[in-house]
Write a structure and sequence with these properties.
Helix content is about 35%, strand content about 10%. It has helices at about 10, 15-25, 35-55, 110-120, 155-170, 185-195; strands at about 75-80, 95-100, 120-125, 140-145. The longest helix has 22 residues, at about 35-55.
Length: about 220
């Protein structure tokens, strides 16, 4: 049996007809799928460019000046964490931060009792992740309460809100003011020592170093 050296098409068609098939252009003139995809992207970009040019100027009529919220109007800062649609156990966690001066405390004894009852949840400075304005006065410090016990975020927020309410009620109870007990600052000192920024020296947490911290003999002599 002889070995086939030509294709079936070459055996059934003449050389002239084969030349015509190769040289003449095809009847279907179309772009490949990648070309259609690029054209679709161009159309989408042009669509949004037209919206920017013709529709965006109409939004000027709805423009309003931004006024930062005051702590008196919204005293409680609520913090939540999300991972751009990804599931994570921390999604249900809720935290609230509130200034002690913004709470309905009746007197200075209630403020002192609140600091004692809050324990490490009270700090003289606002937490860095609280969203508190930098120019806002610290006053009597801040309270931060967090919860991730419940699976539902709303339930965790309800729990921390109720815990804050119970804390205020107990602080305003004048049966025992605990006025003879000092405020526990050990958690503040521990956090400052862990940061290792020099504020832990000479028991000066949260106070920057100044000329008063240097010995007097180190200071230059001022000649009159």
């Amino acid at each position: 049996m002889a070995r086939r050296t030509k294709t079936v098409l070459e055996e059934n068609i003449s050389e002239d007809d084969l030349f015509v098939l190769v040289s003449e252009p095809g009847l279907v003139q179309d772009s490949p799928s990648l070309g259609h995809h690029l054209l679709m992207e161009k159309r989408q970009v042009l669509h949004y460019l037209r919206l920017i040019e013709h529709e965006m100027p109409k939004l000027v009529a709805y423009r309003q000046p931004f006024i930062p919220p005051s702590s008196k109007e919204t005293p409680i800062y609520v913090k939540e964490v999300h991972y751009q649609g990804e599931q994570h156990p921390a999604l249900a966690k809720r935290s609230i931060v509130v200034a002690v001066d913004d709470l309905p405390l009746k007197d200075a004894a209630a403020v002192h009792k609140l600091k004692l009852l809050a324990g490490p949840r009270w700090t003289p400075n606002p937490p860095k992740d609280a969203g508190v304005m930098e120019d806002e006065a610290w006053g009597n410090g801040y309270i931060k309460i967090s919860s991730d016990t419940h699976r539902n975020a709303e339930m965790n927020l309800k729990w921390v809100s109720d815990a804050l309410d119970r804390l205020v009620v107990e602080a305003n109870d004048s049966k025992d003011t605990f006025s003879d007990l000092p405020v526990d600052m050990r958690h503040v000192y521990a956090k400052v020592r862990k940061a290792k920024k020099g504020d832990h020296l000479r028991n000066r947490p949260l106070r920057p170093v100044s000329i008063a911290d240097f010995p007097k003999e180190w200071l230059p002599t001022i000649q009159s």
